């Protein structure tokens, strides 16, 4: 996306904290496949409607076809411009079942092993022009991207765009989706407001107890607030610490192996000799952190940031050298500027 034509075209379209992926790249996020591919694929419209109905894909195709070109914004900080989805407007489809006056929310359920789901306010779903989509850029939607049929919610983080759509349920009360209820993802999800995560739910006494111990392994704490703390030698192996705040913290030789640190903030932290082997650091921030001797082999780096693009490198770049280790293959999931920065300084290993 570096040439000046596209830079001009994309000006003003990148929400705060997002980065464009390389041209032609479309990362796979979350589940990779549905639990089954029934033939025919069906989509049920149920709940607060006068006439529930089960649609086959062929029947959906006879409804008014529309195309919408959208910019995808993933909460893990990558964005992909100008993706042309085709299908039927959710509002048009649901109108045929005549929603009752009770219908205030809409919940989408996937045919996937964990029964993935997400929801929207019904008036907002209509206003945003949510699509039930089976085409992308003029072709059938590939299975790994939600085919045969997915939801596309423009102007929201992409976790509001459910893959492998099986059920559309109109509701009187909201029912939080999978990520919204298990991982603190924001229910509004407006990328222009950076509504990524809800605030943490740890109380002050819980937080003090947590900071007093150095063994957090296998525990799950959302939005831990540990900015500026001395937590050297912390054992956080296999811990789930999404959206943690470790800015300016001292984390020398900390062990984060296999931990989930998606969205975590490590700016300016002292991470010398820390281990992130096989950890999930998707969308995490390391600008200005000291990463000498740190080990990221096997880590999932999708959307992670090591160098701030718009500020001078002296303040905005992580410190890494030949003692900092990454798997070569995992750099694929960084946006190009980040991959170049890491590759130029760190030691890359092959599996
Ligand atoms: N069924 C299902 N839908 C899902 C997910 C998932 O894990 N399962 N992940 C969501 C998230 S977080 C994102 S960013 C997008 C990713 O879509 P993609 O893999 O086509 O890029 O799908 C969304 N819809
Ligand atoms: Mo996402």
Secondary structure: elements and pairs:
Layout (H helix, E strand, L loop, with lengths): L3 H7 L8 E2 L21 E6 L5 E4 H5 L4 E8 L4 E12 H6 L9 E6 L6 E5 H7 L2 E6 L2 E2 L9 E3 L12 E7 L6 H5 L21 H9 L82 E2 L16 H4 L8 E3 L8 H10 L1 E3 L2
Parallel strand pairs: 1-5, 2-11, 12-13, 13-14
Antiparallel strand pairs: 2-3, 4-5, 5-8, 6-7, 6-11, 8-9, 8-10
This protein binds the ligand Nc1nc2c(c(=O)[nH]1)N[C@H]1C(S)=C(S)[C@@H](COP(=O)(O)O)O[C@H]1N2 and molybdenum atom.
Key structural traits:
351 residues; alpha/beta; six-stranded mixed β-sheet; 8 helices; binds ligand MTE; binds molybdenum atom
Report what the structure shows.
With 351 residues, the chain is of the alpha/beta class. It is 15% helix and 20% strand. The protein has helices at 4-10, 57-61, 90-95, 122-128, 178-182, 204-212, 313-316, 336-345, and strands at residues 19-20, 42-47, 53-56, 66-73, 78-89, 105-110, 117-121, 131-136, 139-140, 150-152, 165-171, 295-296, 325-327, 347-349. Strands 1, 4, 5, 8, 9 and 10 form a 6-stranded mixed beta sheet that branches. A 5-stranded mixed beta sheet has the order 3-2-11-6-7. The protein has a 3-stranded parallel beta sheet with strand order 12-13-14, with no helix packed on it. The radius of gyration is 22 Å and the shape is globular. The mean pLDDT is 92. It binds the ligand Nc1nc2c(c(=O)[nH]1)N[C@H]1C(S)=C(S)[C@@H](COP(=O)(O)O)O[C@H]1N2 and molybdenum atom. Residues 29, 74-76, 158-159 line the site of molybdenum atom.
CA-based shape = globular
Separation of the first and last Cα atoms: 30 Å
The major beta sheet can be summarized as: 6 strands, mixed
Please state roughly what percent of the residues sit in beta strands, choosing from under 5%, 5-15%, 15-25%, 25-35%, 35-45% or over 45%: 15-25%
């Amino acid at each position: 996306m570096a040439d000046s034509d596209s830079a001009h075209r994309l000006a003003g379209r990148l929400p705060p904290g997002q980065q464009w992926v390389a041209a032609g790249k479309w990362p796979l996020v979350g589940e990779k496949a549905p639990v089954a591919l029934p033939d025919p694929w069906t989509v049920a419209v149920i709940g607060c409607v006068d006439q529930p109905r089960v649609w086959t894909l062929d029947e959906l195709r006879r409804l008014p076809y529309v195309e919408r070109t959208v910019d995808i914004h993933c909460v893990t900080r990558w964005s992909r411009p100008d993706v042309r989805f085709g299908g039927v407007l959710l509002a048009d489809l649901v109108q045929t079942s005549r929603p009752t006056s009770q219908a205030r929310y809409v919940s989408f359920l996937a045919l996937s092993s964990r029964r993935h789901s997400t929801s929207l306010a019904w008036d907002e779903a209509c206003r945003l022009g949510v699509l039930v989509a089976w085409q992308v850029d003029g072709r059938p939607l590939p299975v790994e991207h939600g085919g045969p049929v997915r939801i596309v919610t423009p102007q929201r983080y992409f976790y509001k765009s459910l893959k492998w759509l099986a059920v559309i349920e109109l509701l009187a009360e909201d029912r939080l989706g999978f990520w919204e209820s298990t991982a603190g993802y924001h229910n509004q999800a407006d990328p222009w407001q950076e509504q990524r995560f809800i605030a943490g739910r740890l109380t002050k006494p819980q937080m003090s107890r947590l900071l007093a111990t150095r063994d957090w392994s296998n525990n799950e704490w959302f939005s831990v607030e540990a900015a500026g703390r001395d937590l050297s030698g912390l054992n956080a192996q296999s811990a789930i610490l999404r959206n943690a705040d470790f800015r300016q913290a001292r984390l020398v030789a900390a062990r984060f192996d296999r931990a989930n640190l998606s969205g975590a903030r490590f700016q300016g932290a002292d991470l010398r000799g820390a281990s992130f082997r096989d950890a999930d650091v998707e969308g995490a921030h390391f600008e200005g952190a000291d990463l000498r001797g740190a080990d990221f082999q096997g880590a999932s780096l999708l959307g992670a940031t090591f160098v701030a693009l718009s500020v001078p490198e002296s303040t905005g770049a992580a410190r890494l050298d030949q003692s900092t280790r990454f798997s070569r293959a995992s750099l694929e999931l960084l946006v190009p500027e980040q991959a170049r920065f890491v590759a130029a300084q760190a030691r890359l290993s092959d599996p």
